[in-house]
Specification:
It is a single chain. Helix content is about 55%, strand content about 10%. The strands form two sheets. The protein has a seven-stranded mixed sheet, with helices on both faces. The protein has a four-stranded antiparallel sheet with strand order 1-2-3-4, with helices on both faces. The N and C termini lie close together (about 10 Å). It is built from 23 helices and eleven strands. By secondary structure, the chain is an alpha/beta fold.
Amino acid sequence: MIAEVDMPSRPESGTGGDHWLAVRPRLVLASAFMLFLELALIRWTGSNIVHLSYFTNFVLLGSFLGIGLGFLRVGRTTRQPYYSPVVLAGLVLIVLFFPVTVNRETEGILYFTSLSTSGPPAWAILPVVFAAAALVLMGPAELVGRCFPQLPRLEAYRYDLVGSLTGIAMFSLLSFAGAPPVAWGLIAAIAYGALLQPRSLARYAGLVVVPSLVIVGALTVETLTPGTLWSPYYKVTYERTDFSGVPIMNIAVNGIPHQQAIPAANRLEWERQYALPYERAAAASLDDVLIVGAGSGTDVAIALSKGAKHVDAVEIDPKLRELGGTYHPDQPYSDPRVTTHITDGRAFLERTGNKYDLILFALPDSLTLVSGASSLRLESYLFTQEAMRAARDHLKPGGAFSMYNYYREQWLVDRLASTAQAAFGHKPCVDEVGSGQQAVITAGVTPDAQRCVSEWAGAKADTPPPAVDDRPFLYLHGRDIPSIYLIALGLILLVSVVAVRAVAGPFRRMRPYADLFLLGVSFLLLETKNVTGFALLFGTTWVVNAIVFAGVLVAVLAAVEVTRRFRTPPLPVMYAILLGGLVVAALVPNSWLLGLPLPLRALVAVVVAFMPIFAANVVFAKRFADTADATVAFGANLLGAILGGCLEYLSLVIGYEGLLVVAGLLYLGAFALLPRPARAL
């Protein structure tokens, strides 16, 4: 068992030793608040600034910078971090007064549309959000860091992990309950009030109470806005109107027009694309229909009007389904022929044993990214070659698959058509309707199961190949990183270097912990690979995402407990086990895991994914227990996560499996930088 380094019983200057809370509960509370605040910022800013819906890492990286700076600031000042609630109040006011709806004319992996922009341009608002996120998170991180010198290394780390798990659990419970932002604001206000110890009542009132009231008040106004709901994925706004006697409900998510609930008869009359799947499918009857992206119910109502005897309606967002069930003019979800499934479409295909006469991908466009994964959208795994093969395998003899959307780019239509061709083994029907590359792509399980008016001309020479599960980036034309990301990531790294130098002083303080820095870089890549892998295996739902992040923290906590209580192998041996785990993870294909029964798939996936995570954190725990300066060492590790967050975008070029190779090389680099005395640990 490793002998922990005993710390002085008297707190160091500036650690807050006379706080009304004892150090352990204070550390748990501060850690829980830090992670909760990070998740809430990512969720809330993305709902009001549409650029962040497609670049969630922007706030995440700002949070990592702030947390790292907070740890590095410990011991350099005795002042309370009153700046944190003040900056958060300012950020809330700026975002609510200057929201950004959308600018979707940018090409790359982001999005396509003809909608105009409202609000500040990206170059003006994004730096403000990044800087504010860093400053806001720096406060709780500094409070966490001040607890570290008062406890043995690994005990402090253990309580930090317990707090982080508590923060995830709290945010997940609020997501499950559909809690609005005012609930997040109230928790932030209470946490600030409990953690920030007043030097004087006047200062406490001005720098804690007043900003907290501003935060809660502003978020209350937003919460009480009529026609606003909060789902685990979006800020959903809806408006019920009447157009020439036709009842319509317009729905927007995160400030983007998303869908309309319209009577089936009117939708079929106004937009021909909704009727084409039924005209192109040659099935004699529609006994069973699957609709992925059922939303508020219009596509379900159309299927019922076409004679479907049973419809499985799959929708990932419970609030969109709730709106459709309450307000859709046709009340399709009340029909006994309809069964609703609130889950990810690809996950449903992988789990169900049902067969269908018609499978529809009905405008599945999530307009958001999976939190914690740099470029993975909620629907990314629906448009891969493997997904369309899964759809083909769930068709009855004579059945057909169809998908439609406003694609707006000819190469995108051709890419999806060529994906269907690769999955089904023959050319699909491709109908382009109206303007803006509005298209319907239909493929029968055999050529005889589809009725095309004219044959698709085939993909052009510059059409990208089909997206695959390892690189599910449908909207990325080339195998590269879009310049907008390269510029943004370069600026983030530059700002981070300057900020670390300004707050922490000379970099030589962190030089002895270069290996811990690389451990932070590689662990972020490993975490991203696991988030995306579990999203493929079990769905891109918020529940799966929360479970994965919690599982990672549990694995880290287990590694800490094992290191504290038992004698573990020397660091060179642990590095060998870690690299062996990465090799195993690289050799086990997702296609094989998807073929396993669900319970066995979960067991194997957990073992394969968490074995290297456990080994990596035993390495970190052993090394961290031996460091001379706990806060600087921990700060260096956290700052490494910033570079890791930037390197995540290599997946756009090399795929998610390639991240394991990069992580392995970085772990080798960390071992090479390991101080010679530490190799005997």
